[in-house]
Amino acid sequence: MGLTATISFCRYITAGEFSWRRGHRTLYKTKPNLTKNKKKKRLAMEDELEGLRAHFPLSFGKTSNVSAPTEAIHNATRRTDVATTEAEVSSDFATKHSNSGKSEFGFPSLSSSSETWVRSVRGPNRNPNSSSLAPSNDAVAMGRPPPPSKPTQEEDDGVLMGPPPPPKGLVNSNDSDDEDDMIGPPPPPPAAVDSDEDSDDDDANDNEENRYQIPLGKEIQLKGHTKIVSSLAVDSNGARVLSGSYDYTVRLYDFQGMDYRLKSFRQIEPSEGHQVRSLSWSPTSGQFLCVTGSAQAKIFDRDGLTLGEFMKGDMYIRDLKNTKGHICGLTCGEWNPWTKETVLTSSEDGSLRIWDVNNFLSQTQVIKPKLARPGRVPVTTCAWDRDGNRIAGGVGDGSIQIWSGKPGWGSRPDIYVGNAHTDDITSVKFSSDGRILLSRSFDGSLKVWDLRQMKEALKAFEGLPNNYPQTNVAFSPDEQIILTGTSVEKDSSTGGLLCFYDRTKLEIVQKVGISPTCSVVQCAWHTKLNQIFATFGDKSQGGTHILYDPTQSKRGACVCVARAPRKKSVDDYQPEPVIHNPHALPLFRDAPSRKREREKALKDPLKSHKPEVPMSGPGHGGRVGTTGSSLLTQYLMKQGGMIKETWMEEDPREAILKYAEVAVKDPKFIAPAYSQTQPKTIFAKSDDEEEEEKEGDTKK
């Protein structure tokens, strides 16, 4: 029974057929003699599936295109000068070997000395008739060669195994037996001896170039600022980058979250209307310090949220040690490399202050630099050493002062170098071993100092234009290279450069062009990423260049360059919602405005009860007009003497008393109420009447 069922099932499969219908990969098996009812059910089911698909967007279920290989992406970010150099080298190599009659390939994984040795061992005419199945001439033999065997006529046309035989001119004809039993490597050919000097020169040049291992092959740009980028900070792990600009903003970049578009995930404005002058990460990379042109520094967390703002001092207090904070704009700031609660700031008020991030109300230490004359000289820059025990400050008078953080230490510097530079100092930097100090200044120089002997600088590199007070100097990860940026001068055709100097030899290593029109301000060489950061910009643009090499650098730019933006999936699909606005109903509508009706009523004199304006000019509407002074009739009567104005010549007392008789005979208002009880009014006589009475008495 089971065998019969199995055979019938196999026949059913064999007789079946596959069908592709309407883009759906529907696998169904049918017999050649299907009934019409089954076909109708199948078509109805497919129509139902088509109806369900109409509810999804057209892009649902489509496969994405294959992403480009990482090598092609890195080639797109190759620097132009490096690509040009490689093209020239390849063309020179092709021209050099064009006369040999056969193609030669280099050894990218071998040094020049090893490559020369392999070519000399291989010989100029080795295996001219090698077949396609035999190994190529470029294969390098590894290990001991096999024992020699007598070659036959057929083997002569094949591939030669082991080292080649010595030249015929170096072997005697009598020693025929020794030719087959030769032991050891063959002597070098004569052509290799002649090229020893050239190979030595090439080896020296290659060793000199490979000694520094500067990652300059590829380049990307972090854009977004509208003015020059004046500050830069990369956390210890190389995951996030901070860039501050003269456009008053700070942008946060995350390599793990960025794609090839290189956009910042957050933008903040620490202090409105103040330039960003310095940024510094904490030792744990959980917080960062932001120093702006205001007198108050701020602390932000890793995501850009404000944690606190330091206190501002009283500007009317003369002694800076008695104030609770800076009273002028800040110039620089740096986090202690070991203590996560301590930060250092410098200001234009002529002081350095040490703060505790747990107490924003007052500083813990005030440092006043030593001055040749009394007054206030701004402190332009400051820095910690690697252990966080010493502080270096650059003062506006060109001096460098260093303080040691010993118990009970004060403002008197332990090391004082007067006139270290002829202009303001823009940056100071300690080496990790505590022996070297670097300083950068507005005078266009970079000086290297030995902290054990600070009377004179070890070396002064001149000709480095500097137009920005935030131009810094930095070390390479192994601290064998010193790097700094240059500014663009007004009448110069040279753009912004990134200069590399050898710390041991104290000489120039290389100059790399960053921008033909913009200045280079901040630079950094990250230890873990092995990538170089350089900020640039001018009055209209700003950004950060990142130089890297895919073979030497790790993470950072290598991660985000090859990452495509996230594509929308089915879960991201959301239909457009229908918004019901309750205020659109008549019940919730606001009352219509009566403003126009009120304005119209104010213009109507009857509704607004506006008083009549006095007539000026000729009369109209039944009203008598007026002239400049009075009516014409009044004017004529005054001139003819018919109207006399006697009030200016009349005595006020007589004018009042002439109504006395009328008031007695016809009293009004209050007088009738007191008519019976009111005493008789007696008026005083005039002086003339009194004099007449006295004269009459004397005559009598």
From TrEMBL:
Annotated InterPro entries: WD40/YVTN_repeat-like_dom_sf (IPR015943), WD40_PAC1 (IPR020472), WD40_repeat_CS (IPR019775), WD40_repeat_dom_sf (IPR036322), WD40_rpt (IPR001680), WD_repeat_GAD-1 (IPR051858)
Q: Which domain of life is it from?
A: Eukaryota
Q: Which CDD domains match?
A: WD40
Keywords assigned: Repeat, WD repeat
What ranges cover the WD repeats?
Answer: 222-256, 323-359, 379-404, 418-459
Q: Entry's PROSITE patterns?
A: WD_REPEATS_1, WD_REPEATS_2, WD_REPEATS_REGION
Q: Where is the composition biased (Polar residues)?
A: 92-102, 126-135
UniProt keyword Zinc present: no
- One Pfam family per UniProt: WD40
Q: Where is the composition biased (Acidic residues)?
A: 194-207, 687-700
Here the segments flagged for biased composition (Basic and acidic residues) are 591-612
Which parts of the sequence are annotated with region: Disordered?
Answer: 63-214, 590-623, 680-700
Q: Does the keyword Disulfide bond apply?
A: no
Alphabetized SMART domains for the sequence: WD40 (SM00320)
Q: What is this protein called?
A: WD repeat-containing protein 70-like
